[in-house]
TrEMBL record:
Keywords: Cytoplasm, Methyltransferase, rRNA processing, S-adenosyl-L-methionine, Transferase. Residues 141-305 form the Methyltransferase small domain. PROSITE patterns: N6_MTASE. One of its GO terms (biological process) is methylation. It comes from Algicella marina. This is Methyltransferase. One of its GO terms (molecular function) is S-adenosylmethionine-dependent methyltransferase activity. InterPro entries: DNA_methylase_N6_adenine_CS (IPR002052), RsmC/RlmG (IPR046977), SAM-dependent_MTases_sf (IPR029063), Small_mtfrase_dom (IPR007848). Pfam families: MTS. Signal peptide: none annotated. The keyword Manganese does not apply. CDD domains: AdoMet_MTases. The keyword Disulfide bond does not apply.
């Protein structure tokens, strides 16, 4: 069985006796897959069953469905699971244009539908895969649909870059580095940075960052930032435009986890700079993790926070 983008808590359930090849580019999900005992490599032979969990990007969803269809044997079953907020209704409508959908099950705010893989696949699958392939965006950098702000540098990142200290030196880290936009802006403006470590949970975004940053000072880590431990060589500077949602609902807990991680990996005299939407309540978390912090810049949408003197490195 092939499972694409399995959600947290995905287990074998009724497939206890089936070998599950669970594929995910998200580091946290990958770790959960491994702990659950699933295989994390694609099957060598065509699968008889494939389950695709939709994400939030339409183009990426279509590409992953196309990939799953190609890995199915003719006569194999494809199941697609998603929420209305993931665009499940649109995906179902599109699939009905090209395939005979065998069934649909609706529950709460989600749906699952299934179909039988035909002997011959339509050419549209190749179109879907091509649309999701890495491409040069409006800033001349490599990205792909499904990555955060893949069409160009987002306003929050740009605002943080405008408000970085004039003289950044030493060892630095970018938490949730994405495809490398903030890191690139930092390295281009700060010759005093000796090394910059990019931490990112999305493997495809990190691969794009490798293409975008040819600077020898940069190193790349496929990592769940929230699980970072104190470093043997702590950082002098940590920067971040942390994610604030895994779904369409804001979840400040993600930003709070990034704040805590920054405190763990900073040197006692290190500086942490982050940008956040103005309405997100990070003040209490900053009080817990740092002895000193302030809002050093703001505009109508964003605030830049500078924090020093991390409380713990455990």
């Amino acid at each position: 069985m092939l499972a694409v983008n399995p959600v947290d808590g995905f287990d074998k359930g009724p497939f206890a006796d089936v070998v599950i090849h669970a594929l995910s580019d998200d580091k946290s999900s990958y770790e959960s897959i491994t702990l659950a005992g699933h295989t994390t490599e694609p099957p060598q032979q065509p699968a008889n069953l494939a389950l695709v969990f939709l994400g939030r990007n339409r183009v990426a969803n279509h590409a992953e469905i196309a990939m799953a269809m190609r890995r199915l044997a003719p006569g194999g079953i494809l199941l697609v699971d998603g929420q209305k907020t993931d665009g499940i209704d649109s995906v179902l409508k599109q699939m009905r244009t090209h395939f005979e959908v065998a069934g649909v099950l609706s529950k709460s705010h989600g749906k699952v539908f299934w179909l039988v893989r035909p002997e011959y696949l339509p050419d549209v699958l190749e179109d879907w895969e091509n649309l999701a392939s890495p491409q040069v965006n409006s800033d001349g950098l490599i990205t792909a649909p499904g990555m955060f702000s893949h069409e160009g540098i987002d306003p929050g990142t740009a605002f943080l870059a405008e408000n970085l200290p004039q003289k950044c030196t030493g060892r630095a880290a970018d938490l949730g580095a994405g495809w490398g936009a903030l890191s690139l802006l930092l390295l281009n403006s700060a010759p005093g940075i000796t090394t910059l470590h990019l931490y990112e949970a999305d493997r495809k975004a990190l691969d794009a960052a490798r293409e975008n940053l040819q600077d020898p000072r940069a190193s790349f880590h496929w990592s769940d930032v929230t699980s970072l431990k104190a470093q043997a060589q702590p950082y002098d500077l940590v920067i971040s435009n942390p994610p604030f949602h895994t779904t369409r609902k804001a979840e400040p807990s993600l930003g709070i986890a990034f704040i805590e991680a920054a405190a763990r990996i900073l040197s006692p005299k290190g500086v942490f700079l982050m940008v956040a939407n103005r309405h997100l309540p990070y003040e209490a978390a900053l009080d817990v993790s740092f002895r000193s912090w302030s809002e050093t810049a703001n505009n109508a949408r964003y605030k830049v926070i500078t924090a020093t003197a991390p409380r713990t490195r455990t």
